[in-house]
Amino acid sequence: MADLDDGPGQTPLPAGQVQETAARLLTETSYALILTHGPHGEYTHHRRHAECSHAVVDLWRSGGIGTRQLWLFAYEDGGRAYLPQVRDDADRRDMLTDGVWLEKRRMITDLYGFRSSSWEARTTPREEGFWCFDSAQAAVKRTAPTEQPS
Known about the structure:
The chain is α+β, with helices and mostly antiparallel strands. About 35% of the residues lie in helices and about 20% in strands. The chain has a domain at about 20-95 and about 130-140.
């Protein structure tokens, strides 16, 4: 999220500001694969994740970034009824090996500093899911904005 506010109670940011931030972070001219947040923010509702997703898709569509493929995280939490899990309509599902999952969890706790009992650590999934796109047009169609809570 670079230096953009990622905490609770986020106010909407102008799309241009989010796009400029994403473009600044993606300094290479072309990539084989970009992975980023999903258009619904992985769980009920993370505004900055959703804005980031839309910014990357818009940059790809407009030629601001180049990639052969774009993968967006595909998770849902049943409106906060349970911890985030892979959506049924994900294009790709991957089970992490124990070693990879433990390293991912270590990064959440040691690198980012979240306690092992924190929500962030408890939501570190063993299964990852993605929507996968080979064209910007397909990504634009799939990520068309939907009504989200404020």
